[in-house]
Amino acid sequence: MHAGRSRTIQLTSSGVSPRDYQEYAKRLKRSELFRELEKAQCDSILRSGTWQQRKAGALFFRQGDPASSLHLLASGRVKVYHVASEGHRILLGFVAPGGSFGYGTLVTGAARLTTAEAVLDSLVVAWDSETLARLMQAYPLFAIRNLVTAQERVHLLVERLEEFTTKSVDHRIAKSLVRLAGQIGEETCGRVIIDGNFQLKDLAELTGTTIYTVSRVLGRWRRQGIVAKYRGRLVLSDSSRLQHLLGEVAPAATEQASAS
Amino acid sequence: MHAGRSRTIQLTSSGVSPRDYQEYAKRLKRSELFRELEKAQCDSILRSGTWQQRKAGALFFRQGDPASSLHLLASGRVKVYHVASEGHRILLGFVAPGGSFGYGTLVTGAARLTTAEAVLDSLVVAWDSETLARLMQAYPLFAIRNLVTAQERVHLLVERLEEFTTKSVDHRIAKSLVRLAGQIGEETCGRVIIDGNFQLKDLAELTGTTIYTVSRVLGRWRRQGIVAKYRGRLVLSDSSRLQHLLGEVAPAATEQASAS
DNA sequence: CGTGCCCTTGAAGATCTTCAAACGCAGTGG
DNA sequence: CCACTGCGTTTGAAGATCTTCAAGGGCACG
Prior knowledge:
2 copies of one chain form a homodimer.
Chain A: H1 18-28, H2 39-48, E1 50-54, E2 59-61, E3 69-83, E4 89-95, E5 100-101, E6 115-128, H3 129-138, H4 140-166, H5 169-184, E7 185-188, E8 191-194, H6 200-207, H7 211-223, E9 227-229, E10 234-236, H8 239-247
Antiparallel strand pairs in A: 1-6, 2-6, 3-4, 3-5, 3-6, 7-8, 8-10, 9-10
Helix pairs in contact in A: 3-4, 5-6, 5-8, 6-7
Chain A binds a DNA duplex through residues 168-169, 199-201, 209-213, 215-216, 219, 229, 231-232, 251.
């Protein structure tokens, strides 16, 4: 009853040349997880991990699985979501290259809270619990970096909790768009494009509402020239106006609004 | 405009005898933050912290302050909340002895996301950022313990986000009561008492609703013999029925219900 | 040209908030 | 002893917001 999109998990473990790994490793060392770490330590940590690939649509892990590894995204895009008891899905966010996911690994015996699905073809470095614990003991700064990212996650969650509690759907959608723009958007000529088969469903799951409501809100904004959408691609044409929505509550236009 | 309860911060730093500290230290070593750590390490870590006291109603820190210390509660009770832009308050939870609060300390330059207020007269051990970083480098296991508690915090937040998104107010209130019972409740003869000047406002801020709605829901449950409330004290007389509410959505009784 | 998927739109209705008012109880001061 | 005040709680009524259900539209793909 909750969409049987049970694609097989792909564990292709080759197909990337050593030269590419070098290139990825170089970029990963600049990721948040490695900031302030010495080059030698980064190398050692990266060498202790294993590379994993997933095709778009495949899963890295599924909610309920034993939480046994931490993942650092080298390329592609991953979405992380939680499924509530009645099948309702809550999108926690998208991970861009350099971002990590799959925390909860160090709580012994813990089950995964979320499902991580590749949205685009993706490549990650993964560490299992034992290796991770060993690395953190060897390089305490690495543990601290992990702690910092965990705290940022907490920050984001508190922010969202605040939005769900006190803000209107309009506000939440606007805020989500601004966040998405920063995470996975591409800016060109003042416009931001959010790409990668992006659907209303994603926005609904991010903001805790329905695709019907999202459709109505985006429809209103489209008529006002703030956003445009076509086939899995969303364009923010006027992000200043979006920011504006975040400042003032501005109930105003009930629906039939829109000049011209 | 958001209640000027700006009591002065008390920084009483004595009034507790060394013998008491010994006793508290002994109990703190069994807290989650110190699990699996050797006794000598615990001692060293505890000695690096400073003891702080607050009277009921006083603050340990305020949202917006620079986040400069981690706190471990030795005795008393602390509530942690976030205030949204319009003054709306979101209660993140209560901390019981052995619990810690005031994360976000290691993100350099970060501001406090929350306010921590003593609900009862409280005593804590606190570590500032530099000391904390030094301790974590000296005792990597301590860093890992911190990471684990951060992950548990994430877990709780995701759970609450799920509730806010998909569950009814009834469900959220029931769940909050069950959580509170576990955290700060005292069980006697099958009943659980939640004490300490507990008000409807707290429940409203925990569940993201209004005191009016909370009053109506609790009123219904009172008529059904599930809860009782008198002057800052809440009694859960039938927690099996509460658990039951969490299992089934059970819309049923719209308001005028309640037999005899 | 049909089928499937995603999006849109309308209408009805549930849930929860808001505002206003009253109640109960404790502490205070006459 | 009693009225007064303050705070927390209760209750009613009106109404906003968002969901749900049902149906239709547009576009790609086979």
